[in-house]
Each structure stands twice: as C-alpha cells, then as structure tokens.
Amino acid sequence: MSSDGLESRALLEESEALRRNLEETAVSEVPIQPRFRVLREVVEDYRGLRKTVDGLLFELHHPFRNWKVILPELRGFALKNLDSYKHHPRGHEAVGLILDVFMEALTTARRREVQTQALECLLTYMEKVVHTCLGADSERYGRVLGKSLESLRELPQAQKELLARGYHPVKRMGLELLAREENGSSLGPLNGLLIELLRITYLQWLQEEDPVVWFRGEFGQEPPSGPLRDLLAELSHDRLKAYLSFLESLDGGSSAGDTARKLLQMPGHLELVRMYRELPDRMAAMHLPSKEGGEDLLRDGKILLLFKIMDTSRLSEIHEETLRDIQRSLSGMIRSEPAERLESFLLKTFALLKENVVHYPRTALQCIHAIGQEVFRKGQSRLVEVFLEQVVRFGFQPPEVTGVDTEWQWLCNPNHLLNIRIWLDLICLQPKWCTTLLSALIINLKLAGTCIRDTDLFQKDISKLLNSDIA
Q: d(Cα 75, Cα 124) in Å, to the nearest integer?
C-alpha cells in the first residue's frame, strides 16, 4: 500500500467525524430524471460515449453536486461531441438540455467564480451551436438558442452585470447568429438581451467621472482637436446618454435583423475598456501649449491618465497592464526629469502599487525593481531616500507555507523568493545607501521565516551580494 493510502487510513481511524461524514454522503447509485435520458439515447450506439454520459448523469444527479468538477467535464464532452448530437433526430433536445444544465449551474451556484465558470461554459457552447448546427436545422436549433437567450435576459441583476463585463462577449455570438439566420426565431431574444446588457453597461459607466470633465479639471482647457478629442468624446457622458436614448427609442417597428445589426454596432463594456486603453498613447502624441504660450500642459499627461485608469475600478481588466505602463513611463521620467519633479509621482506610484499588490503581487514587485534601478542610476540622495522609505513601507511577501503537494514540494507564496531577490539586487546596486532596506529584510526574515528550495539556486544571489561593496 502507498504512503498516501496508509495516511488516509490512519486519518479515518483517528477522525470519527470524518468517517461518519463519508459514510453518510457515499452514494452507489442515483435515480436519473426522465428528461435526461435523451443524452444517453443520442449516443446509444457509441459505447465509449455512453459510458462518459453515464458518469456525467451520475454526477448531475448526485445529492451533493460539485459544479467545479461537473462544469469542465460537461463542457469538454459537449464541445467535443456536438457533431454526434447534431446528426440525431433528437439532437436539438440534447443540446437544449446541456444548455439548461449550464444555466442551472449559473443560477444556483453561490460562489462568484463558479458562476463565472458556468457563464463561460454556456456562452462557449452556444457559440459552438450557432457555428455548427444552424445550417443543418435552423428552425429547431434556433428555438433552442432563443430559449437560452431569454433565460439570460431574465437573470438577476448581479449576474447580468457579470455577463455584460464578461470576456466572452455576447456580441461575437450575435454577429455569427445574424450572419447565419437573417430573420430567425432567435434574433428577437438576442435583441432583448443585447438591449438589456448595453443599458446596464452605459448606466454603470455614467457612475464614473466623465473623462472630458476630468481633462478640463486636470489641464484647465478643452482637449486639443484631433484623435485625443475624438476618443474622449466617444467615452463622454453625453455620448453614453445618447446611446441610452437610442435604446429607449427602439419600438419594434424594424425587422429583428435590422435591429440586431444596429445593436451589434454599439460599443459594449470591452469596447469601452479598449478605448480607455488607447487614451494614454493618444495623450502622449498630443501637445497643448498653455494660454501664455509656454510649457506643454500635456507634458505629464500620459502618466496622469494612467493614474486615473488605476483609480477606476471598472477598468480592472487593464490594471495590470497599466501598472507596467506606469513603471515604463516613470522610469523614462526619472532618466530625463529633474529630481524635484519626480517625488510626487513616485509617492503616487507606490500608493497605487500598494492598493493593487493583492491582485498583482509579481507585477508590483517588478515595477519596484525597475523603478529602483533608475532611481539609483540617477544618484539623487533625496530621491533615493524617498524610494527606500516607500519600499520598506510597501511591505514584504511572507513565505506562507501551507503544506506540500503530491510530489512533496513545499506549497508557499511564489512571490516570497522574488521579493527577497529584488531587495537583494537593489542592495547590491548601492549597499551604502541601503542599510535601512537590509535591516528591513533581516527583520522580515526573522519574523516571517523563509522558504527556499534546493532547486531555486539561491546561492547565486548570495554570491552576488558578497561580491558587491557590502563591506
């Protein structure tokens, strides 16, 4: 018997509560609802598929369903074997049933990550059905898709907001649906869903600060004519309100195909995020002289706009990329600007890094490393002092050892060793300036401990430290 088996047996003997719980939840067979029999009927002639379906049906009817296990298995099976269902007379029923299961997971799961997973499975499968099945039997499969689209429109508000911000956009499926079914039965439900999602998107963005108003407040003038002004106008509250007015004006007089075509041309959440992502580069390419005709008011425009993006929670999809852009922009400023102009930007950058370290710890540490290298090269004592103070205040990534994996490797915080290496590398650059940072490293290691594997080759870092001017 393996060591894992011995340990499990010992645990069962020691834990009476665990033993009883396993006995009470163990199930040898489950009754299958009649409506699910079509899944088995469609693959009756395929022994391997029949066995897979039986396993899925058992999991679906288990009294303690685990959606995190069921969803990836059902998704893989459904996508791989859609052709088998497509050519069967009752294939549309089986497809509709699979869509219903994904919808049930979406509406009954309590955890946000499971809801997101279920939604991704549902939309991926719907898109596959549109691409694969509409040409074969458009009427029956169109009704199946229409039912699922109606169900999506009737979701609770929180889940519709999740759908509106999803990485798997409904619009892409809608374009495919429109191309394959100009006046099909599914276009009406598609239009209803698109109107609902676009309305949610525009109302949510109206809660954020108008970027045109932000520009006026930050620079004291209107945006200069050109690509920057055009893009800001697209994101302005006036434009969003115009979109909402258009949605309200749709009265059903046009055909479903014409309405769908108009709705699919309107920007959704991801399109608005992409526009915001383009703004910093548009800003960097523009010049706005002051009223006195002196300095360029947009001199620091790009980094100020990047800070604004980081302050906007609705742009979380591009926050990690924006952090890297801030690091590149600030590194360039450190090389070219006088030290007295840099301190406020440095403080703002560290404040943003600290706010986002939970979500992007590795990116935050890499930003600190790159900025530190530029600060040390500049050699301005006041700037170095501010930087080192902020690094210590930023905090340290503890090892957070939680156990071992199946290969007996330590499970710990992967950013712990990166944090040590970055601090050591900064210390090696200017050891005489970094006594505070070295003291902070020693204290943190003393308090939190460390976790370094033999395979991490940490000896190289120690050799580099000893070969620096540490003495």
A: 9
Give mean pLDDT, residues 127-150: 86
* Closest CA relative to residue 422, chosen from 456, 391, 459: 391
Inter-helix orientation angle 269-284/227-235, to 10°: 150
Match 């609902």 to its residue by tokens: 196
- Cβ atoms of 95 and 144 closer than 8 Å: yes
Angle of helix 157-164 relative to helix 112-133, nearest 10 degrees?
60
Q: What is the pLDDT of residue 2?
A: 44
| Per-domain residue ranges of the chain | 13-205, 209-299
Determine if the pTM surpasses 0.90. no
Q: pLDDT tens digit string along 388-405? A: 999 999 999 999 999 888
What length does the chain have?
471
Burial 117-129 (b: 16+ CB within 10 A, else e): bbbbbbbbbbbeb
- Per-residue pLDDT at 12: 43
Q: Helix, strand, or coil here: 380?
A: coil
Burial 256-294 (b: 16+ CB within 10 A, else e): beebbbebbebbbbbebbebbbebbebbeebebeeeeee
User: Phi and psi of 219, rounded to 5°?
Assistant: -120, -5
Lowest mean pLDDT among 3-7, 137-141, 352-356, 418-422: 3-7
Phi, psi for residue 410 in degrees, rounded to 5: -65, 135
Q: What is the pLDDT at residue 137?
A: 62
Residue with tokens 């699919």: 264
Q: Centre a 10 Å sphere on the Cβ of residue 142 and count the other Cβ atoms it contains.
A: 23
**Spatial distance between the Cα atoms of 122 and 245, rounded to a whole number of angstroms:** 31
Query: Distance between CA 201 and CA 236 in Å, rounded?
Result: 14
